[in-house]
């Protein structure tokens, strides 16, 4: 399967930018439902093949917050400390980086 940029994407608005359902994992499917959908013959025509961070096994394992200017959203993984993502509202500007030590926060379930 080949992924292409969506030229119609103009960025998330003030409402959707701060919802965890607006952000997706760029990885192989983890849930049984997505794995089954991606095995079907019409999978290459589907746009919903990625999984939302909102559906992660540990609920609340992501922090989605505005920056001080409220013009960007900052996304942090609480399960994998060191992952940061960002999106500048109403633009095509977004990105992410992992600068952690590779150690999973196994205490997270007790912290939430």
Structure write-up:
The chain has 112 residues and is an alpha+beta fold. It has 2 helices and 4 strands. The protein has helices at 32-39, 108-111; strands spanning 62-66, 72-77, 83-88, 94-98. Strands 1-2-3-4 form a 4-stranded antiparallel sheet, with no helix packed on it. The chain starts with 31 loop residues before the first helix and ends with a helix. The relative contact order is 0.19.
- Total helices: the number is 2
Average pLDDT number: 87
Tell me the β content: 15-25%
**Outline, from the CA principal axes?**
globular
Radius of gyration: 15 Å
**Head-to-tail CA distance between termini:** 37 Å
Reconstruct the topology from this structure.
Blueprint: H1 32-39, E1 62-66, E2 72-77, E3 83-88, E4 94-98, H2 108-111
Antiparallel strand pairs: 1-2, 2-3, 3-4
Which tags fit this structure?
112 residues, 2 helices, 20% strand, globular
Give the structure's gist in a few sentences:
This protein has helices at residues 32-39, 108-111, and strands spanning 62-66, 72-77, 83-88, 94-98. By secondary structure, it is α+β, with helices and mostly antiparallel strands.
């Amino acid at each position: 399967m080949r992924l292409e940029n969506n030229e119609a994407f103009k960025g998330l608005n003030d409402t959707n930018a701060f919802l965890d359902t607006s952000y997706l994992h760029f990885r192989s499917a983890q849930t049984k439902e997505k794995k089954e959908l991606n095995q079907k013959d019409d999978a290459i025509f589907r746009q919903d093949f990625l999984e939302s961070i909102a559906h992660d096994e540990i609920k609340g394992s992501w922090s989605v917050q505005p920056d001080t200017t409220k013009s960007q959203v900052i996304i942090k993984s609480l399960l994998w400390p060191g992952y940061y993502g960002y999106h500048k509202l109403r633009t095509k500007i977004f990105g992410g980086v992992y600068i952690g030590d590779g150690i999973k926060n196994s205490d997270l379930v007790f912290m939430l």
